[in-house]
């Protein structure tokens, strides 16, 4: 066992990523446990190579957990004409696995929502839609009027919706 462990350790140092050449400084019991675990994994892999029909079962189980998909927009926002002071909703719905996060951009700038600032009158709904408690519109400042897009992201990528304009009547 000791010779096999030594050879496996040398093998691990030479070809396995993430295995430090400094692991020889570990205590004997830790080294022994690590070595037994490595031998167990190598034995299991060798067993699967000798019995390829068992590989299919292992592969199918791991593949089921890895059916992740990039985001895609399934409901795009539509143009809106809204009266000053009234509520409004720009719809956006995205799908993907893992569930994508949704952010909104107005005229190319990220929109601040209640998730960024609890006092914001713009709320990001669980569906991904952007809800305005009341449309703000003044003579000098028109902070809500503009062109909006929603962007859905997960680790596999991002999806951008069609543009939607919000105009104040």
From TrEMBL:
Annotated transmembrane regions: none
Residue span, Ig-like domain: 71-167
GO cellular component terms attached to this protein's record: axon; plasma membrane
GO biological process, one term: homophilic cell adhesion via plasma membrane adhesion molecules
Pfam families xrefs: Ig_3 (PF13927)
Domain of life: Eukaryota
Descriptive protein name: Roundabout-like protein 2
Organism: Oryzias melastigma (Marine medaka)
Lineage: Eukaryota, Metazoa, Chordata, Craniata, Vertebrata
